[in-house]
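Exam prep: given the inputs below (a chain plus flavin-adenine dinucleotide), describe the expected output before reading on.
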Amino acid sequence: MQSSLTPFRVAVIGGGPAGLMAAQTLAQGGVQVEVYDAMASVGRKFLLAGRSGMNITHDEAYADFVTRYGASAEALRPMLDAFGPQAVRDWVHGLGLETFVGTSGRVFPTDMKAAPLLRAWVHRLRESGVQFHMRHRWLGWQDDALRFKTEEGERLVHADAAILALGGASWARLGSDGAWMPLLAERGVEVAPLVPANCGFDVNWSEYFSSRHAGEPLMTVAVIARDAQGKEMRKQGQFVVTQGGIEGSLIYALSAALRDQIAVEGSTTIWLDLMPDWSEQRVADEVSRPRGARSMSTHLQSRLGIKGVKAGLLRECLSKEQFANEAQLAQAIKRLPVRLERARPIDEAISSAGGVKWSALEGTMLKAAPGVFVAGEMVDWEAPTGGYLLTGCFAGGVAAARDALAWRGR
Ligand SMILES: Cc1cc2nc3c(=O)[nH]c(=O)nc-3n(C[C@H](O)[C@H](O)[C@H](O)COP(=O)(O)OP(=O)(O)OC[C@H]3O[C@@H](n4cnc5c(N)ncnc54)[C@H](O)[C@@H]3O)c2cc1C
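Solution:
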């Protein structure tokens, strides 16, 4: 089946936060917008994000906010300048929902859920004339037409411009599977391999340790790791021991550097500070206090409060001799090495890095495919959790739509 779109119509392919924000901006610009998505409904990953308390943006000083995008901060800055954290909050309020700032500075919709927001948003988009075509899997191009696989067979769509917002490659069952990578590469677009971001890591725990401690959180702990320049960085927070490794917000925050080190070195090491609020001296003094007939484990529990998973980690990572040596034990409590073997698979990650390289773009338009714009996680940037991912996707969607509107004028 062939359909012809006239006069200026834009196809937005991918109905995640980036694509829907592009559709909204285009509709406000008076353009006929058609949204296509491979799944039966839009925003599935957005809804999943809402299940664990969705942070939509972050409330820190804007100058700091922009730095969270690391190597891509300068490329994203103009987009964030145009649609940044305050614009995101205003937009939520405009949909009739409130936001609040959590203690960590993360900004949440009041009920912390995504579903009411997505419902109100899609309703508003339909009202403004945006049309949705679900179960349309984009397959690339046939000459100038966009090819889609639908339940009724293949469909060719002619649009004056297209915005691709196809997401990264985590949680493929929600729609973003990275299958667009070869389609763009064949078209001559430079792409970087998609790799896990905000992910957990595998550790070769003994059966003894993991059977006792998998699932236990470390609530007060600091991690010391090397950054991209090889300098030590230290972050305090929480993470969880899993059957075969570690995961959680503190690990995600360090994951980009750890992933890159593993890619180069085969594995990497982090160091745990199990008593982050105590000085080395205080730990050493308490460990070396006379303990009479008490075992070292009982001594650690009564003098330092070290028990459960923290005690298990010391036993796991130290030899018997090291554990019995007060000086070495005290040192390990402040700096316990843990070797990370590999990042968890991309499908489990919160987000992915890699995708369309900045060098492949003029603004948000593909140099190799004039009239085709890209937005969201499919572009080669990454950011930590904390609302930065969604804000980056919203900002990218607005930018791609504005670029398409400007391109129309050319
Ligand atoms: C568990 C979890 C929790 C998260 N929590 C947060 C959070 O609290 N805060 C935050 O900022 N971020 C969070 N994120 C990250 C955030 O959800 C993503 O970064 C964001 O959804 C990416 O938006 P996007 O529009 O670029 O892509 P996606 O949301 O992945 O949307 C891409 C869309 O494109 C469609 N698509 C893909 N390929 C095709 C094709 N060939 N043809 C047609 N359609 C296609 C997909 O079906 C999908 O609908 C979380 C992620 C996860 C997994």
